[in-house]
Amino acid sequence: MTPARRRRRAASITHLWAREVLDSRGRPTVEVDVGLSDGSLGRASVPSGASTGRHESRELRDGDETRYGGFGVRLAVRNVTDTIAPAVIGRDPFDQPGLDRRLIELDGTADKSRLGANAILGVSAAVARAAALAEGVPLWRYLSRTAPALPLPMVNVVSGGLHATGGLAFQDFLILPIGAASYSEALEVVYAVRAAAGDLLAERGLSVLKADEGGFGPALDRPEAVLDLLVAAIRRAGRRPGDDVALALDVAASHFFEDGAYRLPDRPAPMPSEDLVDRLESLVDGYPIVSIEDGLAEDDWEGWAVLTRRLGHRVQLVGDDLFTTNAARLERGIEAGAANAVLVKMNQIGTVTETIDVLERARAARYGTVVSARSGETEDSFLADLAVGTAAGQIKIGSLAQSERLAKYNQLLRIEEELGRDAPFVGAAALASASRLVG
User: Is residue 258 annotated as part of the catalytic site, yes or no?
Assistant: First the structure.
Protein backbone atom coordinates (compact mmCIF):
# COMPACT_ATOMS: atom_id res chain seq x y z
CA MET A 1 0.00 0.00 0.00
CA THR A 2 1.37 3.41 -0.97
CA PRO A 3 1.98 5.53 2.16
CA ALA A 4 0.13 8.81 2.40
CA ARG A 5 2.23 11.91 2.01
CA ARG A 6 2.59 13.72 5.33
CA ARG A 7 2.10 17.41 5.76
CA ARG A 8 5.36 19.31 5.51
CA ARG A 9 6.97 20.82 8.55
CA ALA A 10 8.69 24.15 8.16
CA ALA A 11 12.41 23.60 7.66
CA SER A 12 15.44 25.32 6.22
CA ILE A 13 18.93 24.25 5.22
CA THR A 14 21.26 24.84 8.15
CA HIS A 15 24.32 22.75 7.33
CA LEU A 16 26.17 21.71 4.19
CA TRP A 17 29.36 19.69 4.10
CA ALA A 18 31.28 17.59 1.58
CA ARG A 19 34.10 15.06 1.57
CA GLU A 20 36.13 12.81 -0.68
CA VAL A 21 35.00 9.16 -0.70
CA LEU A 22 35.93 6.34 -3.09
CA ASP A 23 33.80 4.91 -5.88
CA SER A 24 33.67 1.32 -7.15
CA ARG A 25 36.89 1.75 -9.14
CA GLY A 26 38.73 3.07 -6.09
CA ARG A 27 38.75 6.62 -7.44
CA PRO A 28 37.69 9.63 -5.38
CA THR A 29 34.24 11.10 -5.74
CA VAL A 30 32.16 13.70 -3.90
CA GLU A 31 29.84 12.94 -0.99
CA VAL A 32 27.63 15.68 0.44
CA ASP A 33 25.76 15.97 3.76
CA VAL A 34 22.84 18.40 4.15
CA GLY A 35 21.31 19.21 7.53
CA LEU A 36 17.92 20.84 8.06
CA SER A 37 16.57 22.92 10.93
CA ASP A 38 14.21 20.10 11.99
CA GLY A 39 17.14 17.69 12.42
CA SER A 40 16.75 15.85 9.10
CA LEU A 41 20.00 14.82 7.42
CA GLY A 42 20.41 13.99 3.74
CA ARG A 43 23.46 12.38 2.18
CA ALA A 44 24.35 11.70 -1.44
CA SER A 45 27.44 10.48 -3.27
CA VAL A 46 28.10 11.06 -6.95
CA PRO A 47 28.97 8.43 -9.60
CA SER A 48 31.47 8.80 -12.45
CA GLY A 49 31.64 7.31 -15.93
CA ALA A 50 34.49 5.74 -17.89
CA SER A 51 32.54 5.86 -21.15
CA THR A 52 31.61 9.53 -21.23
CA GLY A 53 30.07 11.60 -24.00
CA ARG A 54 31.77 14.87 -24.85
CA HIS A 55 28.50 16.75 -24.37
CA GLU A 56 28.13 15.74 -20.71
CA SER A 57 28.31 18.19 -17.85
CA ARG A 58 31.84 18.23 -16.48
CA GLU A 59 32.94 16.71 -13.22
CA LEU A 60 35.76 18.62 -11.54
CA ARG A 61 39.00 16.74 -10.83
CA ASP A 62 42.09 18.16 -9.15
CA GLY A 63 44.62 17.04 -11.75
CA ASP A 64 47.31 16.63 -9.06
CA GLU A 65 49.20 13.53 -10.20
CA THR A 66 50.66 13.04 -6.70
CA ARG A 67 47.18 12.17 -5.36
CA TYR A 68 45.06 9.37 -6.86
CA GLY A 69 46.69 9.85 -10.27
CA GLY A 70 45.05 13.25 -10.67
CA PHE A 71 41.51 11.97 -9.93
CA GLY A 72 41.17 13.72 -6.55
CA VAL A 73 38.10 15.89 -5.95
CA ARG A 74 39.30 18.29 -3.25
CA LEU A 75 38.53 21.26 -5.49
CA ALA A 76 34.92 20.10 -5.93
CA VAL A 77 34.63 19.48 -2.18
CA ARG A 78 35.94 23.00 -1.50
CA ASN A 79 33.40 24.43 -3.95
CA VAL A 80 30.61 22.83 -1.92
CA THR A 81 31.83 24.15 1.42
CA ASP A 82 33.17 27.56 0.36
CA THR A 83 30.92 28.64 -2.54
CA ILE A 84 27.69 26.64 -2.53
CA ALA A 85 27.08 26.44 1.23
CA PRO A 86 26.87 30.22 1.84
CA ALA A 87 24.44 30.53 -1.06
CA VAL A 88 22.01 27.79 0.01
CA ILE A 89 22.04 27.85 3.82
CA GLY A 90 18.70 29.24 4.95
CA ARG A 91 16.88 28.13 1.77
CA ASP A 92 13.67 26.09 1.71
CA PRO A 93 14.71 22.46 1.06
CA PHE A 94 11.31 21.63 -0.43
CA ASP A 95 11.84 24.02 -3.36
CA GLN A 96 14.00 21.66 -5.40
CA PRO A 97 13.57 23.56 -8.71
CA GLY A 98 14.52 26.83 -7.02
CA LEU A 99 17.52 25.28 -5.33
CA ASP A 100 18.75 23.71 -8.56
CA ARG A 101 18.33 26.99 -10.45
CA ARG A 102 20.46 28.68 -7.80
CA LEU A 103 23.18 26.04 -8.18
CA ILE A 104 23.20 26.52 -11.95
CA GLU A 105 23.43 30.30 -11.53
CA LEU A 106 26.31 29.96 -9.08
CA ASP A 107 28.26 27.88 -11.57
CA GLY A 108 27.50 30.15 -14.52
CA THR A 109 28.78 27.82 -17.27
CA ALA A 110 26.90 25.75 -19.83
CA ASP A 111 28.52 22.50 -18.71
CA LYS A 112 28.85 23.13 -14.95
CA SER A 113 32.62 23.10 -15.29
CA ARG A 114 33.40 25.93 -12.86
CA LEU A 115 32.02 24.36 -9.68
CA GLY A 116 31.86 20.86 -11.14
CA ALA A 117 28.80 18.77 -11.95
CA ASN A 118 29.96 16.37 -9.23
CA ALA A 119 29.79 19.13 -6.59
CA ILE A 120 26.44 20.42 -7.86
CA LEU A 121 24.75 17.02 -8.12
CA GLY A 122 25.97 16.02 -4.66
CA VAL A 123 24.19 19.03 -3.17
CA SER A 124 21.07 18.66 -5.31
CA ALA A 125 20.56 14.98 -4.45
CA ALA A 126 21.42 15.37 -0.75
CA VAL A 127 18.86 18.17 -0.38
CA ALA A 128 16.19 16.01 -2.04
CA ARG A 129 16.91 13.17 0.38
CA ALA A 130 16.83 15.51 3.40
CA ALA A 131 13.54 17.02 2.23
CA ALA A 132 11.99 13.56 1.87
CA LEU A 133 12.98 12.75 5.46
CA ALA A 134 11.59 16.06 6.69
CA GLU A 135 8.33 15.37 4.90
CA GLY A 136 8.20 11.87 6.37
CA VAL A 137 7.95 9.99 3.07
CA PRO A 138 10.24 7.59 1.19
CA LEU A 139 12.52 9.23 -1.36
CA TRP A 140 10.73 7.56 -4.28
CA ARG A 141 7.48 9.07 -3.07
CA TYR A 142 9.02 12.50 -2.66
CA LEU A 143 10.39 12.41 -6.22
CA SER A 144 7.15 11.16 -7.76
CA ARG A 145 5.48 13.08 -10.56
CA THR A 146 3.20 10.22 -11.59
CA ALA A 147 1.94 6.89 -10.26
CA PRO A 148 5.02 4.94 -9.09
CA ALA A 149 6.08 1.73 -10.79
CA LEU A 150 8.96 -0.72 -10.44
CA PRO A 151 11.22 -0.80 -13.50
CA LEU A 152 12.24 -3.64 -15.78
CA PRO A 153 15.94 -4.32 -15.08
CA MET A 154 18.34 -4.26 -18.03
CA VAL A 155 21.24 -6.32 -16.69
CA ASN A 156 24.84 -6.48 -17.88
CA VAL A 157 26.18 -10.03 -18.30
CA VAL A 158 29.20 -9.56 -20.61
CA SER A 159 31.28 -6.38 -20.97
CA GLY A 160 33.64 -5.04 -23.62
CA GLY A 161 34.70 -1.61 -24.84
CA LEU A 162 35.97 0.77 -22.15
CA HIS A 163 34.43 -1.38 -19.40
CA ALA A 164 36.69 -4.41 -19.95
CA THR A 165 39.91 -5.62 -21.56
CA GLY A 166 38.68 -8.66 -23.50
CA GLY A 167 38.91 -7.19 -27.03
CA LEU A 168 35.21 -6.62 -27.73
CA ALA A 169 34.41 -3.30 -29.41
CA PHE A 170 30.78 -3.27 -28.25
CA GLN A 171 30.59 -2.16 -24.64
CA ASP A 172 27.85 -4.20 -22.95
CA PHE A 173 25.73 -7.25 -23.68
CA LEU A 174 22.64 -7.31 -21.49
CA ILE A 175 19.57 -9.38 -20.71
CA LEU A 176 16.02 -8.23 -20.02
CA PRO A 177 13.67 -10.60 -18.13
CA ILE A 178 10.66 -9.63 -20.23
CA GLY A 179 8.56 -12.62 -19.16
CA ALA A 180 8.71 -11.80 -15.44
CA ALA A 181 5.49 -10.77 -13.71
CA SER A 182 7.18 -8.87 -10.86
CA TYR A 183 10.45 -7.15 -10.07
CA SER A 184 11.52 -9.85 -7.60
CA GLU A 185 10.79 -12.57 -10.15
CA ALA A 186 12.84 -10.61 -12.69
CA LEU A 187 15.86 -10.77 -10.38
CA GLU A 188 15.45 -14.54 -9.98
CA VAL A 189 15.47 -14.97 -13.76
CA VAL A 190 18.53 -12.74 -14.16
CA TYR A 191 20.40 -14.68 -11.49
CA ALA A 192 19.73 -17.98 -13.23
CA VAL A 193 20.84 -16.74 -16.65
CA ARG A 194 23.96 -14.99 -15.33
CA ALA A 195 24.98 -18.11 -13.40
CA ALA A 196 24.48 -20.23 -16.51
CA ALA A 197 26.60 -17.81 -18.56
CA GLY A 198 29.39 -18.06 -15.99
CA ASP A 199 29.24 -21.87 -16.12
CA LEU A 200 29.43 -21.88 -19.92
CA LEU A 201 32.42 -19.54 -19.93
CA ALA A 202 34.24 -21.69 -17.39
CA GLU A 203 33.51 -24.87 -19.37
CA ARG A 204 35.00 -23.25 -22.47
CA GLY A 205 38.11 -22.15 -20.61
CA LEU A 206 37.23 -18.46 -20.88
CA SER A 207 37.66 -15.84 -18.16
CA VAL A 208 34.94 -15.24 -15.60
CA LEU A 209 36.74 -12.24 -14.12
CA LYS A 210 34.48 -9.23 -13.70
CA ALA A 211 34.63 -5.93 -15.57
CA ASP A 212 33.80 -2.48 -14.13
CA GLU A 213 30.06 -3.07 -13.83
CA GLY A 214 30.24 -6.67 -12.67
CA GLY A 215 29.74 -8.32 -16.05
CA PHE A 216 32.11 -10.99 -17.33
CA GLY A 217 34.99 -9.86 -19.55
CA PRO A 218 35.95 -12.92 -21.63
CA ALA A 219 38.37 -12.85 -24.59
CA LEU A 220 35.70 -12.93 -27.28
CA ASP A 221 36.24 -10.67 -30.29
CA ARG A 222 32.90 -10.75 -32.13
CA PRO A 223 29.47 -9.71 -30.87
CA GLU A 224 27.92 -12.82 -32.43
CA ALA A 225 30.04 -15.02 -30.15
CA VAL A 226 28.70 -13.23 -27.07
CA LEU A 227 25.12 -13.34 -28.28
CA ASP A 228 25.41 -17.07 -28.98
CA LEU A 229 26.71 -17.50 -25.43
CA LEU A 230 23.79 -15.57 -23.95
CA VAL A 231 21.19 -17.50 -25.94
CA ALA A 232 22.76 -20.74 -24.72
CA ALA A 233 22.77 -19.44 -21.14
CA ILE A 234 19.09 -18.53 -21.35
CA ARG A 235 18.26 -22.03 -22.52
CA ARG A 236 20.47 -23.67 -19.91
CA ALA A 237 18.62 -21.65 -17.27
CA GLY A 238 15.36 -23.19 -18.48
CA ARG A 239 14.03 -20.02 -20.10
CA ARG A 240 12.99 -19.24 -23.67
CA PRO A 241 15.06 -16.70 -25.63
CA GLY A 242 12.84 -13.90 -26.88
CA ASP A 243 9.85 -14.92 -24.75
CA ASP A 244 11.15 -15.10 -21.19
CA VAL A 245 14.44 -13.29 -21.67
CA ALA A 246 15.50 -10.86 -24.40
CA LEU A 247 18.87 -9.33 -25.27
CA ALA A 248 20.18 -5.77 -25.46
CA LEU A 249 23.37 -4.15 -26.75
CA ASP A 250 25.27 -1.08 -25.62
CA VAL A 251 27.38 -0.47 -28.70
CA ALA A 252 29.01 2.77 -27.45
CA ALA A 253 29.87 3.52 -31.08
CA SER A 254 31.48 6.90 -30.35
CA HIS A 255 34.53 5.03 -29.07
CA PHE A 256 35.31 3.39 -32.39
CA PHE A 257 34.28 6.33 -34.61
CA GLU A 258 37.23 8.08 -36.23
CA ASP A 259 37.55 10.42 -39.22
CA GLY A 260 33.91 9.99 -40.16
CA ALA A 261 33.90 6.17 -40.14
CA TYR A 262 33.45 3.26 -37.75
CA ARG A 263 36.40 0.92 -37.15
CA LEU A 264 35.62 -2.52 -35.76
CA PRO A 265 38.41 -5.02 -35.06
CA ASP A 266 36.64 -7.81 -36.94
CA ARG A 267 36.16 -5.70 -40.10
CA PRO A 268 39.21 -4.93 -42.29
CA ALA A 269 38.06 -1.54 -43.57
CA PRO A 270 36.45 1.55 -42.02
CA MET A 271 32.66 1.43 -42.19
CA PRO A 272 30.27 4.29 -43.07
CA SER A 273 27.13 4.69 -40.98
CA GLU A 274 25.00 2.67 -43.40
CA ASP A 275 27.32 -0.34 -43.10
CA LEU A 276 27.18 -0.28 -39.30
CA VAL A 277 23.39 -0.04 -39.50
CA ASP A 278 23.48 -3.09 -41.79
CA ARG A 279 25.57 -4.92 -39.17
CA LEU A 280 23.16 -4.04 -36.38
CA GLU A 281 20.18 -5.05 -38.49
CA SER A 282 21.75 -8.44 -39.14
CA LEU A 283 22.18 -8.92 -35.37
CA VAL A 284 18.53 -8.02 -34.78
CA ASP A 285 17.55 -10.51 -37.51
CA GLY A 286 19.57 -13.29 -35.91
CA TYR A 287 19.04 -12.80 -32.18
CA PRO A 288 16.21 -11.82 -29.78
CA ILE A 289 17.53 -8.25 -29.40
CA VAL A 290 14.97 -5.70 -28.19
CA SER A 291 17.19 -2.72 -27.37
CA ILE A 292 20.34 -1.09 -28.83
CA GLU A 293 22.07 1.74 -27.02
CA ASP A 294 24.38 4.21 -28.80
CA GLY A 295 24.33 2.23 -32.03
CA LEU A 296 26.02 5.19 -33.74
CA ALA A 297 28.31 8.00 -32.61
CA GLU A 298 27.23 10.95 -30.49
CA ASP A 299 27.19 13.51 -33.34
CA ASP A 300 26.26 11.26 -36.27
CA TRP A 301 22.78 12.76 -36.47
CA GLU A 302 22.18 11.74 -40.09
CA GLY A 303 23.23 8.18 -39.34
CA TRP A 304 20.95 8.09 -36.29
CA ALA A 305 17.99 9.12 -38.45
CA VAL A 306 18.78 6.25 -40.84
CA LEU A 307 19.16 3.79 -37.98
CA THR A 308 15.83 4.89 -36.51
CA ARG A 309 14.00 4.58 -39.84
CA ARG A 310 15.48 1.12 -40.39
CA LEU A 311 15.11 -0.37 -36.91
CA GLY A 312 12.99 1.97 -34.80
CA HIS A 313 9.83 -0.03 -35.43
CA ARG A 314 11.52 -3.26 -34.30
CA VAL A 315 13.69 -2.39 -31.31
CA GLN A 316 14.30 0.28 -28.72
CA LEU A 317 17.09 2.63 -29.88
CA VAL A 318 18.57 4.35 -26.84
CA GLY A 319 20.54 7.59 -27.00
CA ASP A 320 23.18 7.91 -24.27
CA ASP A 321 26.19 9.82 -25.63
CA LEU A 322 23.73 11.18 -28.20
CA PHE A 323 21.53 12.93 -25.61
CA THR A 324 23.63 13.05 -22.39
CA THR A 325 20.45 13.65 -20.36
CA ASN A 326 20.35 17.11 -21.91
CA ALA A 327 16.96 18.61 -22.75
CA ALA A 328 18.24 20.58 -25.74
CA ARG A 329 19.90 17.54 -27.32
CA LEU A 330 16.82 15.42 -26.63
CA GLU A 331 14.68 18.06 -28.35
CA ARG A 332 16.96 17.95 -31.38
CA GLY A 333 16.62 14.17 -31.47
CA ILE A 334 12.84 14.35 -31.30
CA GLU A 335 12.74 16.84 -34.17
CA ALA A 336 15.24 14.84 -36.27
CA GLY A 337 13.62 11.46 -35.69
CA ALA A 338 16.78 10.16 -34.04
CA ALA A 339 16.43 7.27 -31.56
CA ASN A 340 13.23 6.40 -29.72
CA ALA A 341 14.50 6.20 -26.14
CA VAL A 342 16.84 8.09 -23.84
CA LEU A 343 19.32 6.87 -21.23
CA VAL A 344 19.07 9.03 -18.12
CA LYS A 345 22.18 9.54 -15.97
CA MET A 346 21.96 12.13 -13.24
CA ASN A 347 25.60 13.14 -13.35
CA GLN A 348 25.45 13.79 -17.10
CA ILE A 349 23.31 16.86 -16.43
CA GLY A 350 24.05 17.61 -12.76
CA THR A 351 20.78 18.34 -10.91
CA VAL A 352 17.72 16.39 -9.80
CA THR A 353 15.33 18.86 -11.45
CA GLU A 354 17.00 18.73 -14.86
CA THR A 355 17.05 14.93 -14.70
CA ILE A 356 13.32 14.74 -14.01
CA ASP A 357 12.59 17.34 -16.69
CA VAL A 358 14.31 15.13 -19.31
CA LEU A 359 12.35 12.09 -18.15
CA GLU A 360 9.08 13.98 -18.44
CA ARG A 361 9.91 15.44 -21.88
CA ALA A 362 10.88 12.01 -23.17
CA ARG A 363 7.65 10.53 -21.88
CA ALA A 364 5.62 13.30 -23.54
CA ALA A 365 7.35 12.51 -26.86
CA ARG A 366 6.66 8.77 -26.39
CA TYR A 367 10.35 8.05 -26.08
CA GLY A 368 11.30 5.16 -23.82
CA THR A 369 13.32 6.00 -20.71
CA VAL A 370 16.10 4.01 -19.03
CA VAL A 371 17.48 5.30 -15.72
CA SER A 372 21.13 4.32 -15.59
CA ALA A 373 24.07 3.97 -13.22
CA ARG A 374 27.70 4.63 -14.20
CA SER A 375 30.77 2.41 -14.38
CA GLY A 376 32.20 4.20 -11.34
CA GLU A 377 29.38 3.86 -8.80
CA THR A 378 28.88 4.26 -5.05
CA GLU A 379 26.63 2.52 -2.54
CA ASP A 380 24.13 5.39 -2.83
CA SER A 381 20.76 3.96 -3.94
CA PHE A 382 19.16 7.27 -5.04
CA LEU A 383 18.86 5.92 -8.59
CA ALA A 384 16.44 3.18 -7.55
CA ASP A 385 14.08 5.66 -5.91
CA LEU A 386 14.28 7.94 -8.94
CA ALA A 387 13.32 5.11 -11.31
CA VAL A 388 10.28 4.16 -9.20
CA GLY A 389 9.11 7.69 -8.39
CA THR A 390 9.18 8.78 -12.02
CA ALA A 391 7.89 5.43 -13.34
CA ALA A 392 10.81 5.46 -15.77
CA GLY A 393 10.04 1.90 -16.88
CA GLN A 394 13.59 0.56 -17.16
CA ILE A 395 16.73 0.64 -15.05
CA LYS A 396 20.31 -0.20 -16.04
CA ILE A 397 22.50 -0.71 -12.97
CA GLY A 398 25.11 -3.26 -14.03
CA SER A 399 25.39 -6.93 -13.22
CA LEU A 400 24.08 -8.84 -10.20
CA ALA A 401 27.44 -8.46 -8.50
CA GLN A 402 29.35 -5.96 -6.34
CA SER A 403 27.88 -3.96 -3.51
CA GLU A 404 27.58 -0.68 -5.43
CA ARG A 405 25.26 -2.44 -7.91
CA LEU A 406 23.41 -4.55 -5.36
CA ALA A 407 22.64 -1.44 -3.26
CA LYS A 408 20.26 -0.34 -6.03
CA TYR A 409 18.82 -3.78 -6.77
CA ASN A 410 18.18 -4.33 -3.05
CA GLN A 411 16.59 -0.91 -2.63
CA LEU A 412 14.14 -1.82 -5.37
CA LEU A 413 13.27 -4.99 -3.44
CA ARG A 414 12.55 -2.85 -0.36
CA ILE A 415 10.37 -0.50 -2.40
CA GLU A 416 8.51 -3.48 -3.87
CA GLU A 417 7.77 -4.57 -0.31
CA GLU A 418 6.62 -1.05 0.64
CA LEU A 419 4.26 -0.90 -2.32
CA GLY A 420 2.73 -4.21 -1.31
CA ARG A 421 1.63 -7.44 -2.87
CA ASP A 422 0.26 -5.80 -6.00
CA ALA A 423 3.24 -3.49 -6.50
CA PRO A 424 3.05 -2.13 -10.06
CA PHE A 425 5.80 -3.55 -12.28
CA VAL A 426 6.28 -2.13 -15.76
CA GLY A 427 7.88 -5.26 -17.21
CA ALA A 428 8.00 -5.75 -20.97
CA ALA A 429 5.47 -2.93 -21.46
CA ALA A 430 8.37 -0.52 -20.91
CA LEU A 431 9.58 -1.32 -24.42
CA ALA A 432 6.27 -0.71 -26.15
CA SER A 433 6.38 3.10 -26.26
CA ALA A 434 9.91 3.14 -27.67
CA SER A 435 9.67 0.46 -30.35
CA ARG A 436 7.13 2.21 -32.49
CA LEU A 437 6.67 2.85 -36.19
CA VAL A 438 8.76 5.83 -37.29
CA GLY A 439 9.19 7.68 -40.54
Answer: no
